[in-house]
């Protein structure tokens, strides 16, 4: 089912046209710790005067899986990719964590409809409003 999913799915890795474009015009720049692969257009400058850059995600296409160092390169904030320059996180920065919304590991507060469906017990300080 590999070629079938390549043609008809866009959320699971790269589409067939993206793979063809990458093989024809892409230069491999590097890979992050998640397994995402980063490319740059071999023809040089694109329509905006800058080389086109893209990522092929490992697994499902989830943009929040791009770490901060690669995000800066993808969005032209820095010119050198993290493979050529060592990225040092600041002491206050937390380790990268992808967006977990829609997954079993997503945050569900107490009383959430998706959670246990139990409302927390009141502590007796609630007084309902009565129209008099």
Automatic annotation (TrEMBL):
Keyword Protease among UniProt keywords: no
Annotated segments matching region Disordered: 86-132
GO cellular component terms given for this protein: respiratory chain complex I
Domain of life: Bacteria
Keywords (A to Z) from UniProt: Ubiquinone
Isomerase recorded as keyword: no
InterPro entries in alphabetical order: NDUFA12
Signal peptide, first to last residue: none
Single GO BP term: response to oxidative stress
One Pfam family cited in the UniProt record for this chain: NDUFA12
Protein name: NADH:ubiquinone oxidoreductase subunit NDUFA12
Taxon lineage: Bacteria, Pseudomonadati, Pseudomonadota, Alphaproteobacteria, Hyphomicrobiales
